[in-house]
Design a protein that fits this description.
Elements: H1 2-20, H2 25-45, H3 54-67, H4 74-95, H5 106-118, H6 131-140, H7 147-161
Helix pairs in contact: 2-4, 3-5
Length: 192
């Protein structure tokens, strides 16, 4: 009857609402980016987006790692792969279809493992600022229209106002003790 159909529609809407709470908004944003990337790949290469075959998913992952502009790092590609894996598992469960999950195949696992080994981004070691560099930055001024200029200004604020922050005791060479203070007793020690 119409009442039963309306009741089922209301249940479906409430179920969708409750399922939205299952993931944080930031996680949902990652899911949306993964699906947009897959749609972009499908449009460029004329491929069917979802459900994906094992070979199509392998090509998609290689495209993300090597050909897409900008290319993605291995950790992001692994995250996108897990998003697509979850999509395939959910569809198979909800639709009760024999839908294979290509992300669990040996080809995809091997591809991701070899990408982790071969496409690692080398971490750039940061050198600490020296006093002459800080003086040059101070004399040059801060270009507040760039991220670097804002970063430099923030660095100087931390250096200048750091000792004045709440909770910081006297910055004296003897550890901050004043003449009228005694060092605190260790916990549980007897007091005079």
């Amino acid at each position: 009857s119409v009442t039963q159909r309306m009741g089922r529609l209301e249940l479906q809407q409430q179920t969708s609402l409750v399922l939205r709470w299952a993931r944080r908004e930031s996680t949902m944003a990652v899911h949306r980016r993964a699906h947009r990337a897959l749609q972009e790949y499908a449009t460029i290469y004329g491929a069917l987006a979802l459900p994906a075959s094992e070979l199509q998913l392998a090509h998609f992952l290689v495209w993300l790692l090597c050909l897409r502009d900008p290319t993605l790092d291995v950790a992001t590609v692994e995250l996108y792969s897990s998003v697509l894996s979850e999509w395939h598992n959910t569809c198979a469960s909800v639709l009760q279809l024999p839908l294979a999950n290509p992300c669990s195949s040996a080809l995809i696992r091997t591809l991701l493992r070899s990408a982790r080994r071969g496409l690692k981004r080398v971490a750039k070691r940061k050198e600490p600022y020296t006093a002459p560099q800080l003086v040059r930055m101070l004399h040059a001024g801060f270009d507040l229209t760039t991220v670097g200029g804002l970063h430099d200004r923030l660095l100087f604020c931390f250096c200048l106002f750091g000792p004045l922050r709440p909770g910081v005791r006297d910055h004296q060479p003897d550890g901050g003790l004043q003449c009228d203070q005694r060092p605190s007793q260790p916990h549980g020690a007897a007091r005079d």
